[in-house]
Specification:
By secondary structure, the chain is mainly α. The protein is built from five helices and two strands; from the N terminus they run E-H-H-E-H-H-H. The protein has a two-stranded parallel sheet.
Length: about 90
């Protein structure tokens, strides 16, 4: 049976306001499951939570990455695409 590489994406929420930040109460458990499955099966990940943290450290604001906290802006899409390409090349 052929093996195809699997690349799992860790979703993010940009805390643009209190309402959006509440999404973490639902999302964080799902993120933990994705991380566990990736580790158990040796799959590579694109950690969008880390991408967001790095972007914020580099001077972005949550709303420049995802204006509504969930749907990426053009710069947010660029960050995601670059992270995906980096992970796919490993």
């Amino acid at each position: 049976m052929p093996h195809a590489p699997v690349l799992m994406i860790i979703p993010f929420v940009a805390d643009v306001d209190e309402q959006t930040a509440r999404i973490h109460s639902d999302l964080d458990g799902k993120v933990a499951i994705i991380r566990r499955l990736a580790a158990e099966h040796g799959h590579r990940t694109v950690d969008l939570e880390q991408v967001l943290a790095d972007a914020l450290a580099a001077g972005h604001t949550p709303s420049t990455i995802a204006e509504d906290g969930v749907h990426p802006t053009p710069p947010g899409h660029r960050l995601i695409a670059d992270a995906w390409l980096d992970a796919a090349r490993r």
